[in-house]
């Protein structure tokens, strides 16, 4: 992987991590298009740079992370399902991460759902994190597990899950951001451990690419989060739904016409 390819993937990660369009799905397609999807370091890189993106949440919402102990308990409760499902289905998840057609299908289906989310859940009763119960946090955590299927989008799953439990769009989006911190930190730690356990040793160039990738993802995510919240409050999810449908349809179309999406 070259420096330019690393920067491209990092920009995609930073821009899409907190949007309901699937950052993992977009990076799978981008790395396939660049012909580097099957490289073990690239697979690690696409997970590890998520750490840079989620650190932007800590910076932007710094005070919220130190407001109460209950805040951490709720995040832990919401995080538990991901731990359980991740350990039980890790091998299957890794296999799905190599499938571009899976991304296409889930992008398309998720897009259709986003077209109607604003109408389905338009009577919010919870507008602040402090009003989220532990049971509600657990249910949102279960929704997050759906995002283990590439292309589903962790952000979309948790935001829709939150709205289905009475959270406003903004409250659901912010809780999704907060939940990303322990979730993606754990995913990165596991990926690094697996990489090390498999006998891989980082080269100086790979360390440089990881450092640059995380910095780029961090800066881009800072801009993306603020823009997303403002857009979401004004416009809702319909545009994201149509975007997913178009991208998903293109991927499915390429697959059905005989294109090998794994090595584009």
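^ Assign residues to that structure.
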């Amino acid at each position: 992987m070259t420096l330019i390819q690393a920067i491209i993937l990092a920009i995609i990660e930073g821009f899409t991590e907190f949007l309901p369009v699937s950052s993992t799905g977009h990076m799978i397609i981008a790395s396939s298009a660049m012909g580097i999807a099957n490289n073990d370091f690239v697979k690690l890189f696409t997970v590890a740079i998520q750490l840079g993106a989620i650190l932007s949440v800590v910076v932007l919402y710094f005070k919220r992370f130190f407001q109460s102990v209950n805040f951490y308990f709720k995040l832990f409760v919401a995080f538990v399902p991901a731990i359980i499902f991740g350990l039980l289905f890790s091998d299957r998840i890794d296999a799905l991460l190599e499938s571009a057609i899976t991304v296409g299908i889930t992008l398309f289906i998720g897009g259709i759902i986003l077209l109607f989310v604003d109408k389905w859940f338009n009577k919010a009763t919870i507008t602040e994190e402090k009003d989220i119960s532990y049971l509600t946090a657990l249910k949102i955590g279960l929704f997050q597990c759906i995002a283990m299927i590439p292309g589903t989008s962790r952000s979309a799953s948790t935001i829709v899950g939150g709205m289905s439990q009475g959270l406003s769009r903004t409250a659901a989006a912010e809780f999704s951001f907060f939940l990303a911190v322990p979730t993606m930190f754990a995913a990165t730690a596991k990926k690094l451990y697996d990489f090390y356990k498999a006998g891989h040793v980082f080269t100086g160039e790979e360390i440089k690419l990881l450092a640059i990738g995380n910095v780029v993802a961090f800066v881009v995510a800072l801009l993306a989060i603020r823009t997303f919240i403002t857009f979401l409050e004004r416009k809702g999810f319909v545009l994201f739904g149509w975007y997913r449908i178009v991208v998903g349809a293109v991927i499915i179309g390429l697959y059905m016409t005989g294109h090998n999406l794994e090595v584009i």
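Residues 3-263 form one domain.
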